Structure formats: C-alpha cells, structure tokens
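Continuing from the previous page of notes. For each protein in this section, the sequence appears first, followed by its structure tokens. Read the first protein now.
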Amino acid sequence: MANSKILTAEQEKTLRQPIEEYVGKIQKEIDELRKDGTAKVIMYQSRIENVKRDKTLSKGEKDSEIASCQKELEQAKAVASHVLAVRHSLSFCMDTC
C-alpha cells in the first residue's frame, strides 16, 4: 500500500499549495491591471457621454475632449482585453490541471 495513488487530505493540500500561491499571485496582477483596464474603460465612456450632454462646451471643445477620451479609451480597452485573456487562460489551466 506504500505506492497507493490515493492522496490524503494533507498530501493534497501540500501539492495544491504552490499552485494556489501562483494563482493568487496572478490574481493580484490581474486586479492591478483591472484598474488600468476595465475601471478606466467605464470612466472614459462615462466622460464621453457627459461631454456630449454638456451644453456649456462649444462644438470644438466637445470634439477635442471626446477625441482625447477616445484615445485613452482605446488604451484602456487594450488593457482590459489583455486582462480577460489572462483570466481565461488561468481559468482554463485551473480546469485542466
């Protein structure tokens, strides 16, 4: 029975610990990236809508502000897309590992 393939709960915990630490580290990185991705996407989308509704700005000011926000929005979307890809690959790894 010394070569048994069945793990005790303690053996399983010991084997899973490095994996869980690695996943935790990646999750922290994802959370940090999310600040520059998803949160900023929402912020810039909201800012663009507010500028469109602002009656005190001239057309030129609106266009300029919207163009600036669009540029930042595209960068934030790229980060958000990267975060989703990382999360997907992490979830795939956890399902298959």
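Done with the first. The second protein uses the same format. Note its length before scrolling.
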Amino acid sequence: MKEHIFTLFLTNILAHTGYSKEELFTKTKNMDIVAAKQMLIYLCVNRGIKKASIKRYMLKYGYNLHDVSISYAMRSTQKYIKEDPDYKAIIDKLIQID
C-alpha cells in the first residue's frame, strides 16, 4: 500500500549515493552500501511502513531481509544520527519526498 513511498525513498538514496539498484540490493559487507540500505529501512519505518511491507518490497529487488536486520538497521542509524550531525543532515535531506 505504501510501496510508492518506499520507491521515493529508494530513488532519493540512489541519487545521493550514486549506487544502482543492483548494487544496493546485493549482499555485501561494503559499509557504504550497508549504510545506504540501513537508511532506506530507517526512513521507511519512521514513515510508518510496516516491517512486513518493507521486507516484501526489498524482496522484489531480490534482497531477503529479516526482522533482526530491520531492528539492527534502526539502532545503527539512530546511533549515527545521534553521533554525527552530517549523517542527520543527510537523513533530513533524504526524507523529503512530499
């Protein structure tokens, strides 16, 4: 139901990072790609998109997301926002979709 919001956040993140969808939805330990994925999850959860919906939308791109990954993404992103004003500024920019 809120897939269009997920897609808008995804578009913002891809534009900001320069990654392709294929790169973003690849399992990797590259911290920049991981952070971008975590931002996407954070933005979606804070917008009220249910975890099950986020998992379903990401699966459409071939990325199997688990509940524990969503929780970890939320904690990590909140920590970065608290510790790094630049990170908060990026989130504030990416959240603008209306």
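What the second structure shows: The two ends are 16 Å apart (CA to CA). The chain is about 70% helix and 0% strand. We return to this in next week's lecture.
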